[in-house]
Amino acid sequence: MSDSATPTSGRRRIFLVDDHPLVREWLTTLINQQKDLVVCGEAEDAPRALQAIESLQPDAAVVDVTLASGSGIELVKDLKRVAPKVAVVVLSMHDAALYAERALRAGARGYVMKRETTKKVIAALHEVLSGKLYVSEDFRTSLTEKLIQGRAGESPVDILSDRELEVFRRLGQGHETRRIGEALGISMKTVQVYCGRIKEKLNLANATELLREAMRWWESEGRED
To answer: Is the pTM for the entire model greater than 0.85?
Structure first.
């Protein structure tokens, strides 16, 4: 959705993906204030975002890592396939140590925390549009520490795949398997398969232990502040 009152000639086009209208409004105002950037469209979920970005082919996209419908990380992977020239910046409330590495592996060119200054959001867009990577100093520090410590420095959820982590996160939020399947566009049976893999990887005996561990993790580490 372009702003007809905002001149677009010569400006790099940015697409926004976030399920919070106020965040999209904030980002639109922030980006449209830049002389070289303009918001060309927005979506609140992964399926609509994928369709719109494939059609519009913007210069860059700002994607929230956690969406009410779909997964930000999976969306980044899909965009790499259908719109490889679109530079993706992942925006998140989550600690960089939890999702930044996954986002970059998926194909994102930048990772910015929502609590960081607005200048860093714009800086990230300029960096990725120039073909560079953008990550916060905190992430560079945590990545260095992880490399030094090796597997001893990993969180238990680090061994989960991106899709398993998404299921685990939603379990921690109290979502039932049917609701998780609907949100991620997969069957209940597939959700149950992921749950089985998570139990095996985290050495959990049954569904009760899985739910208890997911809720404990969400309260202590996964919750968006």
So the answer is: no
Q: Strand, helix or coil at 198?
A: helix
Taking only the tens place, the pLDDT of each residue in 58-73 is 999 999 998 988 899 9
Domain extents in the chain = 12-143, 156-222
**Range list of β-strands (E), 114-180:** none
CATH class of residue range 12-143: alpha beta
| pLDDT tens-digit series, residues 194-222 | 999 999 999 999 999 999 999 998 887 75
DSSP letter string, 56-110: H--SEEEEESB-SSSBHHHHHHHHHHH-TTSEEEEEESS-HHHHHHHHHHHT-SE
For the domain made up of 156-222, the CATH class stated in words is mainly alpha
Residue from 143, 134, 84 nearest 113 by CA = 134
Q: Do domains 12-143 and 156-222 have the same CATH topology?
A: no
Please report the beta strands in the chain, taking only residues with DSSP state E, as ranges in sequence order.
12-17, 37-43, 60-64, 87-92, 110-113
